[in-house]
Structure formats: C-alpha cells, structure tokens
Amino acid sequence: MSTLDLHHLGLAVQDLETTTAFFCAVLGFSVVKEKPDYPATFISNGHILLTLWQTEAAAAPFDRRRAVGLHHFALRVESESELNAVYRNAMAWPGVVSDFEPEPLGESGARHAMLFEPGGIRLELICLTSP
Question: Over the Cα atoms of the chain, what is R_g?
Fold first, then answer.
C-alpha cells in the first residue's frame, strides 16, 4: 500500500486576484473553477492542480524559520532556456521578489531559481535537463 502522487496543493494567499493572474499569465496555468463565496480559485497547468485560498486582510506572512508549514514548492520547466525565460517574466511581474537567480543546484546537474510570487508564497523553478 502506498500513495501515488500529489493530487492538488492548497495555498493560502494574500491577494487571490493578483496571485491567480500571476500563475496564469507567467506560469501557464488556467482557471478551472472559482468559488467566490469562500473565496478560492482552482487553477491547473494540465499536470498540477492548485487551490488558491484568499486569506483575511490581517493574515501574517509565513516565516519558514518560525512556523510549521509549506517552505516552498517547485515547478519543473523543460530546459535551462525555459528556466531563464520564466524567471525573467516572473521578475517583471509587480510584487514578485527574487530569493535567488537561476543557478546550479549543487552538483546535481539541475538548475533552479527561487522567488516569492505576489501573494507571498515561496516557489522554486527547476530544470533537470541540460540547455
């Protein structure tokens, strides 16, 4: 008996509209369903389903050193050139903050970058292939 894979990931975000727009315009997701009374938006890129939940206005941002919870999640891209392009597009988006630019991931052969999307969620972009 074992689990198979990640079905969906639920993320609490500070600005549902802005975060939804960012994931759709920059990362290639599309809105699958909206639940305005919650409020929540369900988005997918055809491989991953994300549930974006609106927090209350006074919600504190996550501090990965002082709270238990999601440290980050990683989205895989196909190539180093795609990694660079997605990172550039993300950094042009208002409210996105870079943690670090694309760089080698140790000696694994992979390259990755880390950023905070406009809603405050830390996310990693990673490519596992050569350029």
Answer: 15
